[in-house]
Amino acid sequence: MEYFINCNSSTLAPYTTPLDELRAAHLYRRLGFSASVQTINNAVGQTAGSLVDNIIDQALTTPTIPAPVWADWTNADYPADDDLAGQLRRAQIDDITTAYGNALVDNELLDRLSFFWSNHFVTQLQTYNCPQFLFYYINCLQQNALGNFKIFTSEIGLTSAMLYYLDGVRNRGNNPNENYARELYELFTLGEGNNYTEDDIIETAKAISGYTERGEEGCTQVTFNPEDFNTENKTIFGQTGNWGYDDVMDILFAQRTDEIGWFICKKLYEFFVHPDSTNDDGGIAPQIIDGLAQTFISSGFEIAPVLRQLFKSQHFFDETAIGVIIKSPADLYFNFLKETGFSYDDGTITNMIDSCALIGQDFFEPPEVEGWQRDRQWINTNSMIGRWLTMEVFIDRFFQNDPEEFRTLAMNAVGAANSNTSNPEIVVTALVNKFTPKGLLTDADFEKAMDAFKIDDVPEEYYSTDYIPGGNGWWVLSSSMEVPTQVYVLLRHLSREPEFQLK
């Protein structure tokens, strides 16, 4: 697949033209896991300013996943038999992962962002393998996804998931462990080698020591043990004192403001706008990131104002920003689920999460602390075949469950005015536009899609305008018995097209 060069020359000035269908769909593909025909139709004609504000305001008030009954269990709450206890823990992990998958589908921007942050503040479930730790890690992601980044950084670092993953539980004052201090600067706030030293890392490790109290072994939340805290003076970014964890956050965000602003806004830009944050001529993208960073810093590191500015901008809605990001596995399945409106249950969500793992995106198990690298890394020979085959499995299952939903999808896509159309081109055009950001690349590609839709069971003359409506053999979208199968075959065909892999 050709890699897109960032040629976007638009600015952060507000995009004031009422949204057309292309840009409304673009907004929902990027701010959530896409949307239904009805949601996009309702967005057409609205201004980006009002729609984006509504989406962000809704995300700020969206409730997080409720605490399960086992959220604060300890070893004493599990069966004494180790095998039975292990089975129960695995079932709880499956339950909370499925609940999170439902949140990704339902919560639009909130959990689009919480999922993004899970690939920034990375942990690996296999390190701690504890349902309680996973729940509170997810809760921290959801609570802070659009909040204050300084508070977020502070709170995520004290989750038991992170303390286990980056060895905070082994960071004792007389024998400091540098893992978390290093990643705090290198991956979480500043970027590799960006204005910090090895001495800063060593001194920071001492300052954040002491979060080592694990109680009974198992899933007891980690707490602070003052006996394991280093009480010496430490010098961090030129500031000397008997610093502790909160002091580290204060010093970091006061002394490295510009570095944090640029690093985080660059990551947001590459995730939401274009995977390449430099232009082919070195042009506008760095200026865009500068503008976002200024907003970020001036707001005291609030995330929501940055998103409001970016998602309302001419730069975000520029033609060259549409359809230039390769779908992640989660995008692939969850976008399809939202765009079709097909019926699903927890089993569907679980199967989609399992399929994500098969093609490279194992939830809460990024391959390394740097996280999934995204975009071009999602596509290789093996994963491409996996994407095709798993999508076909889901399309087959939806069809077996209720073929008429495929007719409903097509009728929604063409709109009420065309629900009784006898022109297959209208239907294919609407569905192609629904499932690809900018349609298919060539006329020949579109003709192949038309051929797929015109299955052998429907003779070509059935589409002819020479037939009398209602007469024998007349093909009509709303009533012809072949329509569900035709839509099914078309979706299978489109799911293998390169354009289907883009958002």
Please, could you describe this protein's structure?
The chain is an all-alpha fold. It has three domains: 21-61 and 258-321, no CATH class; 75-106 and 121-255, no CATH class; 329-501, no CATH class. Helices cover 53% and strands 1% of the residues. The chain is built from 23 helices and two strands. It has helices at 21-31, 37-43, 48-61, 82-106, 109-118, 125-128, 131-144, 149-157, 160-165, 179-189, 198-207, 245-255, 257-272, 284-298, 303-311, 314-317, 329-340, 346-358, 381-401, 404-414, 424-435, 443-453, 483-494; strands at 234-236, 239-241. A two-stranded antiparallel ribbon has the order 1-2. Strand 1 and strand 2 (239-241) form a beta hairpin. Helix 4 packs across helix 5. It is globular. The chain starts with 20 loop residues before the first helix and ends in a 9-residue tail after the last helix.
Tell me the layout of helices and strands.
Blueprint: H1 21-31, H2 37-43, H3 48-61, H4 82-106, H5 109-118, H6 125-128, H7 131-144, H8 149-157, H9 160-165, H10 179-189, H11 198-207, E1 234-236, E2 239-241, H12 245-255, H13 257-272, H14 284-298, H15 303-311, H16 314-317, H17 329-340, H18 346-358, H19 381-401, H20 404-414, H21 424-435, H22 443-453, H23 483-494
Antiparallel strand pairs: 1-2
pLDDT < 50 stretches: none
- Within the largest sheet, what's the order of strands? 1-2
Percentage of residues in helical conformation: 40-55%
C-alpha termini separation:
14 Å
Taken as a percent bin, the fraction of beta residues is: under 5%
Number of strands: 2
Number of domains: 3
How many helices? The count is 23
Mean pLDDT across all amino acids: 94
Quickly give the structural class: mainly alpha
The helix-strand sequence is: HHHHHHHHHHHEEHHHHHHHHHHHH
Largest sheet, in brief, is: 2 strands, antiparallel
What is the radius of gyration? 25 Å
What overall geometry do the principal axes of the alpha carbons give?
globular
